[in-house]
Amino acid sequence: MPKLLQNKHLQLFLLSLVVRLMYLILIKGIDSPPQGDEGGYLKLGDYLLGQAPESFFIFRAPLAGFILTPFFLIFGSTSQIARIVNVLISSVFAPLIFSILKIKFDKEKPSFYLSLFWVFYPPSIFYSSMITSETLAGLLVLIFVFVFQKNEMKIKINNFIYLGILCGLISLTRSSYYYLPFFILFFFIYKYQLELIKAYLLFILSFYATLSPIIVYNYQTFGSFLPSEPRLGYGLYLCNNDLNNPEIKKGGYFRDEYLKQRKVNYNNLKDMYLDDISLKEKTLEYMSENKTKLITPMINRYLNFWSFRPNPMKNSYTINDIIMFFVWLPILFLYCFTLLSRRLNVIELLNLIIFYTSITVLPFWGIARFRFPVDSLIFIKIFTYINRKFIDKDFK
């Protein structure tokens, strides 16, 4: 075998790439038309090239779309190219998990074999060719964990700057992660106490410096300080407009007549944003007046987040549901077991990020896809437990 191919990182990347390309070409279909949110990300990819529609504006966290731009510039703006880019991003997960496990175990062989599980994890294959934000968000979360673990070995102030930048990039990929740095800041204070105040300040400053382009854009476009996307009111109303609605009670969303007939004033985006603020206030008031009715939707949103079913709102079961029943439930059981077996270590960075991600669905709707950015962290926690209990005794 050529020396280059003996590199474990490269082996994991190439194997992941082959598996995901086979799924894209043979099962999904590389020419499958964009669906749902995919069209919005394609337009974001065109935006920096000046090829988006004249009325287009940045209405969601843009990084998952912007990362397509250089590839669109070279190869042309098509959904096929976008899917291949996401497959490439997905193929980096397993090598990165391998790197993180090597730091934890200080052993190459068990780290490699355990990382192979991720290569064949069905959701990582299924989502790899979707033009959405979950895959990029998951990769950035893994990079954050990798940098944090390197920093634990030898604390450096500069690493807190890198961590802040990564938090900014994660927020620019999925706006639901905007508050994550503040949870992590409390974790830093818990872990290091007040010994590293300068590092904490640099962490937060670098986070906002990374967000500064979108903050400036939003201020110029909507006339407000807005470090995230300008659709909070829409999102809240979509998921809470009628707490008696069966779909909303199941943890989903419902487009009522108002949303169906709602017209966006592209000529005056500042007024559009003011309308969104008004919609947010109206929805929050309605939610406040119906607190007891919120209990069922919120419980189901949280359960849907942890569900083995890709779409728990469907009335009938699919082959994907059956596959994930046998794949996900053992994983979830093992993760819960690691939490119970190491109760003193529950307050730990990976668990914190997993917990934060799980509660972000409570005000909105929830499905297992929103869990995917932290599925790899759940794997790492399980692998760490398996290594400590079983493998470490056998591998020399």
Structure description:
The model has no long low-confidence stretch (mean pLDDT 91). The protein contains 20 helices and no strands. The longest helix has 26 residues. It has a domain of 60 residues. By secondary structure, it is mostly helical. Helices cover 68% and strands 0% of the residues. It starts with 7 loop residues before the first helix and ends with a helix.
What is the alpha-carbon Rg in Å? 22 Å
- Quote the average pLDDT: 91
* Principal-axis shape: globular
Give a quick account of the main beta sheet: strands, pairing sense, barrel closure: none
The helix-and-strand class reads mainly alpha
Helical residues, percent:
55-70%
Instruction: Count the E strands.
Output: 0
Q: What order do the helices and strands follow?
A: HHHHHHHHHHHHHHHHHHHH
| Portion in beta strands | under 5%
